Amino acid sequence: MAHLSKNRDRLLARVRRIAGQMAAIEKAIAGDAGCSVVLHQVAGARGAINGLMDELIEDHVRAHVASPGLSDAERAAGAEELIEAVRRYAK
Known about the structure:
By secondary structure, the chain is an all-alpha fold.
C-alpha cells in the first residue's frame, strides 16, 4: 500500500509509543501500582490506539474509496475492506 509507505515513519513512531504505553501498563501491574494509575494508563493506550485506527481509516478512505482515479469496482472493494475492518474493530 503506497499510501502507508508515505507515512511509514510517522505510523511506526505511533506504534512504538503504543508499545511503550503497553510496557508501562505491564510494569505498573507487575509493580502493584494503584488501580487508578493502571486505569489511566489503559485509557491513554486506548486513546492512542483509537488515534492510530482513525489515521489508518482516513488513509484507506482517501486511497481506496475517494480517490478520483478508481473504478467503481475498486471503490466497492475498498469500501468492503473498510467495513470489515471497522466491524472487527468495533467488537
